Amino acid sequence: MSPRLLARARQLLRYAAVSGIATATSLTVLGVLVGTRSLSPGWANLVATAVGTVPSFELNRRWVWGKTGHRSIGAEVVPFCALSAAGLGLSTLTVTFAGRWADHAGLATSTRTLAVQAASLTAFGILWLLQFAILDRALFRTKADHVETIAIVHTDPSDAPSHDPSDVPSTAPVTTAAPRPALERVVA
Predict the structure, then answer these.
(1) In what helix (H) or strand (E) does residue 113 lie, and over which residues does it extend?
(2) What span, in angstroms and rounded, lies between the C-alpha atoms of 140 and 65?
């Protein structure tokens, strides 16, 4: 496995771990609020998502993408909260629907709570990979990412291989590094 692919795999594992921590936090809060009927499923989901957003932001920023120092409110916090709000919107619709369905079906409180938690987990699961791409490509991008380089091989047409395997070009291709545009990057 190439070093770059290995680094990407480690980053995805850290991202999954952070997601697990944030999800466990949110689902615990959601379960307590719905299970005790302290709040309706929609409002409970709002509170649970807000609570889970805090460790998600900090752990993603520091551990997954290795950013330290001053947080930019406009470039990091607000966009991250907007992503969380999009997830909140989708999950609130799903938990509200699940809660109404469970009430209409006459489910026991514990079963109703599990249905609401499953709806929340499903909604956030759908957004998980999309959020990774946005965080990686835009939000937590480092300066090094902007000047990432790739090898470009320049060859002289006279160096093109012939159909005769014993014919070896007299000069080897020249390899140079050139900046790689951000939109050409591919998630490994």
Answers:
(1) helix 109-134
(2) 6
C-alpha closest to that of 47 among 69, 21, 25: 25
Rounded CA-CA distance 21/15 in Å is 10
Amino acid at 131: Q
Instruction: Read off the pTM.
Output: 0.63
Is there a contact between 59 and 99 (Cβ–Cβ < 8 Å)?
no
Helix (H, G, I), strand (E, B) or coil at 120: helix
Q: Smallest Cα–Cα separation from 87: which of 44, 136, 39, 122?
A: 122
**What stretches of the chain adopt beta strand conformation (E)?**
149-154, 174-179
- Beta 149-154 vs 174-179: how paired, if at all? antiparallel
**145 neighbors 182 (Cβ within 8 angstroms):** yes
Task: Give residue for tokens 């998980």.
Answer: 128
Could you list the pLDDT tens digit for every one of the 188 residues in the chain? 899 999 999 999 999 999 999 989 999 999 999 999 999 988 998 999 899 999 999 999 999 999 999 988 998 999 999 988 888 888 889 989 999 999 999 999 999 999 998 998 888 788 888 888 888 888 887 665 544 434 334 444 555 445 554 544 444 444 444 444 444 344 43
**Long-range contacts from 161-166, C-beta under 8 angstroms, 24+ separation:** none
